[in-house]
Every structure is written in C-alpha cells, then in structure tokens.
Specification:
The complex is a heterotrimer. Chain A is of the alpha/beta class. Helix content of chain A is 37%, strand content 17%. Chain A has one domain: 3-Layer(aba) Sandwich (Rossmann fold). The longest helix of chain A is centred in the C-terminal third of the chain and has 17 residues. Chain A is globular. The N terminus of chain A is likely disordered. By secondary structure, chain C is an alpha/beta fold. Chain C has 2 domains: 196 residues, Thiamin diphosphate (ThDP)-binding fold, Pyr/PP domains (Rossmann fold); 114 residues, 3-Layer(aba) Sandwich (Rossmann fold), CATH 3.40.50.920. In chain C, strand 2, helix 3 and strand 3 form a beta-alpha-beta unit. The longest helix of chain C is centred in the middle third of the chain and has 18 residues. The termini of chain C are far apart. Classes of the chains: A alpha/beta, B alpha/beta, C alpha/beta. At the A-C interface, strand 2, helix 3, helix 5 and helix 12 of A face helix 4, helix 5 and strand 9 of C. Strand 2 of chain B pairs antiparallel with strand 8 of chain C. The complex binds thiamine diphosphate and iron/sulfur cluster (SF4). Thiamine diphosphate binds next to helix 4 and strand 5 of chain A.
Chain lengths: 291, 198, 392
C-alpha cells in the first residue's frame, strides 16, 4: 500500500455497527436495472456477503465485468470496478492482476459473456491459473439483448433465436473449467444462497484461478418462453433440481439427467499460481544479472 | 564522433552511395553476409540500410540480402541499381544480374555458377565453396570467405571493421575458423580471378 | 545525444554507432519510454517487437504476456493501464482488426495505451511479408462511433524508436490510445541510427520533447480524473457514455458534452500533436506530401527532381491524425499541385484533398502491388503533371 493511503478498516470507527452489504454498494445508484424476480441481485448479494466475511478492502479489490444484465452488477459496487466489453472481462482482469498481483481481482460474467463470446478467454484464464475469482451468472439466455439463445439454453429450450426449440447441447461449464486447468471449481444456485456465499468465499481465498458457476433465474426472458413460468416457480425448480456433489456421486448418469450438481467440484493446490511463478522468474533473472 | 577507420583502397570505397546485393539459396548464409556487411559499414561510420527477403520468398529456396552504404543519411531504402552483386547460386545470378550497373562488380561462386550471365561489369568467378573447404574443412565458412573476397576485391568496407563485424556475428567457438576463412578471402588476388568482360 | 536512452545505447556496436532493426528499435523506444506491460499475439511482420519485449521486459521488472489472441492482448493492456501501468501492444492488419472494439473502449474510458501496427498488404491475410499503407483509414476510423484518434507513421528505424516514445507520451498526456503505423519495410530493415538521421528527419513541432517532464496531464482538459484502480478513489470505469463521476448517463446534454470533450482534447492540441518536416519550404512549384516509407521515396525524389528542373517541396508527415489542417492548408496556398504517393489507393490523399482543394489540385498516386514507390516513379509522375498543367 502506498504511503498516505489507508485501508478501509482504518477509516471506519473500530466499534462500528455490524456491516451490511450496503458497505460495498453505491446505493445512490439505485434503483438498479434488474427486473423484479431476477436472480442476478441474489447472486451479487451472495458475493458481497462473502466479501464482508473476508473483509475485502475497497481500494485493493477490483471487480471486472463484461456486458450483459449480469455484468451490470459492477455499476452498483463500491470497489474499483471495470465495466469492460462483451466477453473480454477476463482479458482485462489478466492485465490488472499481472500488473498488480496484490489486488484481489473478481470477474463477474454471464453465460453468453463468459461461455460464448468470451469462451476462448475463459479456457485460457483457467489454463494460466492466475489468482482471479470468476463468478459466471448462468441464466440460460441472453437477458440484456432480449432472450436470444445462449450456449447454455439447452436442447429443446426456447429463445427468440430458437423459436422452434434449440437443437444444440450445452457445455458443462464446470467440467470445461476443470479440464481447462482451473484449480478451484464450484457450482451453486440463486436458491442455495448460503452455499453459494461459502463457495464464493472459498474461491476468493483459493490461491489460483477459481471458477464458480451460479445458476440463476431470468424470469423475464428465459422464463417467458420456458417452463416453469414466474420467479417463484423458477426458484422452486432450482431447489428441486439441485443436488449436492456427495449425493450425486452414487447416482447413474440417467438419474442425474436434468439435475444441477452443486458444491465444490474440484480443487487442486499443487499447480503454481501465475503471478507467483512470474515473480520467481523475475527474481531468477535479477539474480543472474547480479552475478 | 571518432574518426572513421581508413578504408582499403578499392573502387567501391570511393563511391559515396553503394548498393549491394547478396543472393543465393536458403542455408548458404546469405542473410548473415548482408548483416555482417551492414555492421562493418556502420563501424566505418557509413550510413547503412539492410533489407532482406522474408517469408515465402525466403522459404522458396531463394535468399536475398541487400545493403545500401552511403556517406549521408539514406532516403530511399531499397536497391535502385547494383554496384555489387554477390551470387552464390545460379538462380541468384540469373535473377539479379540485370540490376547491375555497368561499372558494378559481379562476384560469384564458380563452383555453383558454371555459365555466368554475360555482362559489362567487373566479373570475378571464384570457387568459394572449394576454397572454404580447403581452408577450414567446412562448407559453412563459404559465406565468410566470400565476404573476405568481396572486401578485398572491392573495398566496400574496411578490413578492420569487417573483422570486428565477423567476430561479433558468428557463433561462439567458431571465431578462429571464420577469421581464417575471412583472411583467405581477403588474400585473393584480383588478377587471378577476374573474368574478361563481354 | 539526449535522445538516446539506456536501452538504445546498449545496442551500440562501436562507440556511438548503431545498427538496429526497425521492430527492435520500436521495442527499445517503448522500454526507454517506460513501458512496463506488454501483451501481444504473434503476427508477421511485427513479431520481433514482441520477441524483444519478451526478453527485455522481465529484466526491468515489467510484465510480458503472450495472450490467446489480439483482442485479449489489447484488453490486458487496457486493464494494466487502468492500474497506472504504461502498456503497449504490437500487431499487423488482421490483429489490428480484432483490436478495434477495445480501442474504442480505451478512447471512451480514457485509458492510455500504445498500439503499434506494422502494416502488411491486405485485406484479410493479404501478403504478410509485403509492405503496405492500407490501414491508414482503419487507424483513424476502425472503431465505431464518433471518436478522436492520434495516429503516427514511422518512416525509418530512428522513427520506430522516437515515435514510439512520442506515442507513449501522447497516450499518457491525452489519456487515450495512440496508434503507431509502420510498414513491413520499416519494421524489418536494419538501419544505422545516428544523430545525423534525427537531424535530417526532423520532428518539427511546437515544443515536443521526449523526456518524462513532457507529461503534465492537468494541462489537457479532462472529462474526469485519471482512473487508478487500486487506489482510494476506487473508480468505476465503463465503456458506456458517462459523466464526470465516471458512472453511466443517458442525459442528452451530458452525452454530447462528454463526446465533444473527448474530441476537443485532441483537436485543441493539434499544434502539439502534429509532428512533421518540410523540405525546400517555399521553394517548390509543386509539392509531395508523404508519410512512412513513401516519405523516404519523396525525399529521394526531391534531389532527382531538382536535377531535372522541377522545384519540389516535400511535406513529410509523422502525425497523420489529428489532421495537420493548418500545415496542409498553408502548403496548398503555395504550390500548383500536391502529389501524394501512398502504398494504398489514395486513403490519405482523400483527406488532404478535402483540406486543400480550395487552393490547389491534389493528385493521388497509389501503388498496391507490394513494391515501394521509387523516387523515379515520383519524378516521372511530377514531370507528367507539370507538363499537363502547363499545356492546360
Ligand atoms: C461485441 C458485442 N456483440 C454483441 C453485443 C450485444 N450483447 C450485449 S449483452 C449480450 C448478451 C449477454 O448475455 P449474458 O452474458 O448471458 O448476460 P445476461 O444479460 O443474460 O446476464 C449481447 C449479445 C455486445 N455488447 N458486444
Ligand atoms: S432480463 Fe432476465 S437477466 Fe436481465 S434483468 Fe431481467 S430477469 Fe434479470
């Protein structure tokens, strides 16, 4: 920390009331743009509660987003925030993290933003194992642009660009991330907010690339065209479909069809984190120059 | 700026603007010849531009390296007419001979080029490959031997600068061998290798 | 020799004599200007810039990254820039096309960064190892929307070094991306680099100096204060139209004001941004306006034309955008016609014609076969035009 700057903790009175997530919100920017019943706020709140638990400092935390309803979250967050361009949040975040390894860097992205247009950046970010935490809001559609199909719409799903039913399979995003090299992979839902908060918190403390898929509801665009209709029904559906990893372990693929496997799915601490390896390389070069 | 080293007596050393091309096939070290000449020219306090074939042109078996040396800053960077063409392959001789000026120099490897194109320029046919093998036992030193001959016959750069340039550019451990090749080239006598002009 | 900083000086081959490749000189200029973050993706004929950075940046504690594509490269550079780092990327046509959206973001978010485009023949893959100046208009208008642009063009190895430094300084001072255009010839050639070259190829401009003292950001009208992530300001940065708080706005008045300020900060400093050199000023009947490799042909043609009795004035432009309006209009008042040799079909000639047609005739001379325009070509065309206008 540069001289003259002080941490947030120092600025606040020490016997403060227990903080709420408002601490990290630009409440003056409200009302937010999200529709009633949308799950994006729920997921964002889970992230903010994880941030509170960890006591993330506003000036040392940078939250980067792409473009989409989900990515709009950064417009309300009181951290250093970058609302970048569609699909490229991870590339921006890579520059930020490599330039300043001491920052906590979080990426918020959607299923279109992160898995379609930004898919290439996603797999490479996983491979590099930079200490960035990515939260992918999966609402199975392009909400912002009006309900077009996303890679996560799923076989038989309806979208404005799939009026007769989508005929492409989806990614299993968590398996994709794991295969690409992410060292922390987890999935939660906007129904299971406690679990989601914990998964995000552990992802942030994990020293390496963390990928958390947050399955959530878009009643306005996805829900309008796909059963069940209505936010409450969609949430109940999430509750019914979600199944913990432990339980899923004993089940056959047929039994797992249509279920959402949640919890910590993969963790590997043996892979070197990129900023750390880079620092070691600089050190090696410096030493050999001194000799 | 310190004094420029004295140049060898020779015809190209007195020209204020000299255009040189090395041509051959890939693997003959033609590009390196151009770069070494450029470094030597820079050491002579001349203004220098070096360009070369890249990409498909360079991979298709041809290799070309051009050097312009001048007493004043060089504006147009490419060859407009050659003062010196050094050809290590028949293909290069055929392709580039037309660009030689009448008062230019044409120096070629007579092992590779058995029927050189007829021309007015001063022509020297020298069995570079054979001489290199005789001198160092290695065909890889052909380009450096040829560079020595070029400097000796034309004075395009000073011997002192060329030696330093060679030493700084050849792979470590081969300096001695390359210097031998260079000196062998420098020692060649013009009378012995000059071809009658046509 | 104050222009020669540490990284360049390390290249000396004999006391103060230097022979440097153009792309290498660009990288050395970047290092000497303080670039400490480079992200790129390999592409001919620019890859050497990246390779030099890969070797040299770690040695000065900087960050080098080979990204998965050019989009990621420029985005990483912008990300680093938002933390206060001086960043740069280098590419050629296909990669430059991929970068366009993010270049607009950097303009909008006022994030300084430098993009070097070593041009090759296009469109598409074109001829990768062949010089061209086909990306001039893309450099100006490649990204969407009304926006300002700062575009420099390098004509020799010395330019690759000093214009890269200039680009870094301009980027920091004007808080926006700056584009350096080179072409395959300039990028790949090795050339001796002496103070004499810098003296002959002068950068005539108000008060440009290469030192760090040049940057005094407060002098340029700011839309909002510089972003610095990771500071107490913890700003919000966005590509949406925003107001002085940095947060988005849909207010028509504020939107227009914001966009005008983005333009004005460049246009109001045109005198400072426009680097150029005139040869034979006021002595030509006719003029040649050129940039990049073609400027070298034009300078060589000047001598040749004089010998043949055609007095020519040569305007060598190092800054293509913002347009050097006053400089071109003054020239237009002095000469019978202006010839513009370019390795494209007249992209810049159209701009010059727009500015000069009230006073003189502007003739485009384009070449798109992959070869340079020779001094002879230029003189022949001048003679032809002089004859034509005389008989008319
Ligand atoms: C290059 C580009 N292409 C298209 C768009 C238009 N666009 C904006 S948001 C979006 C989809 C966002 O979908 P997702 O990431 O799933 O986020 P959601 O809105 O569903 O939260 C698209 C296609 C854009 N902004 N930029
Ligand atoms: S469109 Fe869907 S994702 Fe977007 S805010 Fe509305 S409910 Fe949420």
């Amino acid at each position: 920390m540069a001289e003259g700057e002080s941490s947030v903790a120092e600025q606040e009175p020490s016997v403060a009331e227990p903080r709420t997530i408002d601490h990290y919100l630009h409440t003056d920017r409200f009302p937010h743009i999200w529709c009633p019943g949308c799950g994006l706020g729920t997921v964002t709140a889970a992230f903010l509660r994880a941030a509170l638990e960890l006591g993330l400092e506003k000036d040392r935390t940078v939250v980067v987003a792409g473009i989409g309803c989900s990515s709009r979250a950064v417009g309300y967050l009181d951290f250093g925030t970058v609302h970048s361009i569609h699909g490229r949040a991870l590339a921006f975040a890579t520059g930020i993290k490599m330039a300043h390894p001491e920052f906590t860097v979080i990426v918020l992205t959607g299923d279109g933003d992160g898995a379609a247009i930004g898919g290439n950046h996603l797999i490479h970010a996983c491979r590099r194992n930079l200490d960035i935490t990515t939260i992918l809001f999966n609402n199975n559609t392009y909400g912002m642009t009006g309900g077009q199909a996303s890679p996560q719409t799923g076989m038989g799903g309806y979208a404005t660009t799939a009026p007769f039913g989508f005929d492409e399979p989806s990614f299993d995003l968590c398996r994709l991330a794991e295969a690409a090299g992410a060292t922390y992979v987890a999935r939660g839902t906007s129904y299971g907010v406690r679990q989601l908060q914990k998964l995000i918190r552990d992802g942030i403390t994990h020293p390496g690339f963390s990928f958390i898929e947050a399955v959530t509801q878009c009643p306005t665009e996805y829900g309008k065209r796909n059963p069940p209709k209505g936010p409450v029904q969609m949430l109940e559906n999430l509750k019914e479909k979600a199944i913990s990893r432990k339980k899923a372990e004993g089940m056959t693929p047929e039994e797992l069809e249509g279920r959402i496997v949640t919890g910590l799915l993969h963790r590997d601490e043996s892979v070197p984190e990129l900023t750390a390896s880079y620092a070691r390389m600089l050190e090696r070069i410096r030493k050999s120059a001194d000799e | 700026m310190s004094e420029a080293p004295a140049m060898t007596d020779g015809l190209l050393s007195s020209r204020p603007y000299v255009e040189v091309r090395f041509g051959g096939s890939g693997g003959q070290g033609v590009i390196l010849m151009g770069v070494i000449l450029a470094v030597a020219g820079t050491r002579d306090r001349r203004h220098v531009v070096q360009t070369q074939s890249y990409g498909p042109e360079a991979r298709g078996g041809y290799s070309r390296s051009d050097v312009v040396l001048a007493n004043a800053p060089i504006d147009y960077p490419q060859i407009q007419g050659l003062d010196l063409l050094v050809a290590l392959s028949a293909e290069a001789a055929r392709k580039y001979a037309g660009s030689l000026r009448r008062d230019g120099f044409f120096i070629f490897d007579s092992d590779e080029i058995t029927s050189p194109p007829p021309m007015d320029a001063n022509s020297y046919g020298i069995p570079f490959t054979r001489l290199a093998v005789e001198t160092t036992g290695r065909t890889q030193t052909t380009n450096i031997l040829a560079l020595g001959a070029v400097a000796g016959l034309t004075g395009v750069v000073s011997v002192a600068s060329l030696e330093k340039a060679v030493l700084s550019m050849v792979p470590k451990g081969t300096e001695e061998m390359n210097l031998n090749a260079l000196r062998r080239g420098l020692a060649l006598l013009p009378e012995e290798w000059k071809r009658p002009s046509i | 020799m104050e222009l020669w900083y540490t990284h360049l000086m390390r290249e000396t081959i004999d006391q103060d004599s230097l022979l440097v490749q153009g792309n290498r000189a660009c990288a050395l200029g970047a290092l000497d200007a303080g670039v400490r973050f480079f992200a790129g993706y390999p592409i001919t004929p620019s890859s050497e810039i990246m390779e030099v950075m890969a070797r040299e940046l770690p040695a000065v504690g900087g960050v080098f990254m080979q990204m998965e594509d050019e989009i990621a490269s420029i985005c990483a550079c912008i990300g680093a820039s938002l933390t206060g780092e001086i960043s740069m990327t280098a590419t050629s046509g296909p990669g430059f096309s991929l970068m366009q959206e993010a270049i607009g973001y950097a303009i909008m978010a006022e994030a300084p960064t430098v993009i070097v485009n070593v041009m090759r023949m296009g469109p598409s893959t074109g001829r990768p190892t062949t010089p061209s100046q086909g990306d001039v208009m893309q450099a100006r208008w490649g990204t969407h929307g009304d926006h300002p642009a700062i575009v420099l063009a390098a004509s020799n190895v010395a330019d690759m070094y000093r214009l890269t430094i200039a680009a870094v300084r301009f980027a920091q001072r004007f808080r926006m991306p700056v584009i350096v255009l080179a072409d395959e010839i300039v990028g790949h050639m090795r050339e001796s680099f002496s103070p004499e070259i810098a003296g002959r190829y002068r950068l005539t401009s108000g008060d440009f100096d290469f030192t760090e003292t040049y940057i005094h950001p407060e002098m340029v009208r700011e839309v909002h204060p510089p972003h610095e992530l990771g500071t107490l300001i913890h700003p919000h940065v966005t590509g949406l139209i925003h107001d002085e708080t940095g947060f988005p706005t849909n207010d028509p008045k504020k939107s227009e004001q914001f966009l005008r300020e983005l333009h004005d900060k460049v246009v109001h400093h045109r005198g400072e941004l426009c680097l150029y050199d005139v040869k034979n000023v006021g002595k030509g009947r006719v003029a040649v306006v050129a940039y990049g490799s073609c400027a070298r042909s034009a300078r060589a043609a000047l001598k040749l034309a004089e010998q043949e009795g055609i007095p020519v004035e040569v305007l060598h432009l190092y800054t293509l955008f913002p347009l050097p309006v006053e400089i071109i209009q003054e020239l237009a008042r002095r000469v019978e016609f202006i010839l513009i040799p370019e390795l494209n079909l007249g992209q810049y000639a159209r701009e010059v014609r727009r500015l000069a047609e009230n006073w003189t005739t502007v003739v485009s001379m384009g070449r798109i076969d992959g070869n340079l325009i020779t001094p002879r070509d230029i003189v022949d065309r001048l003679a032809e035009l002089v004859g034509k206008y005389e008989s008319a």
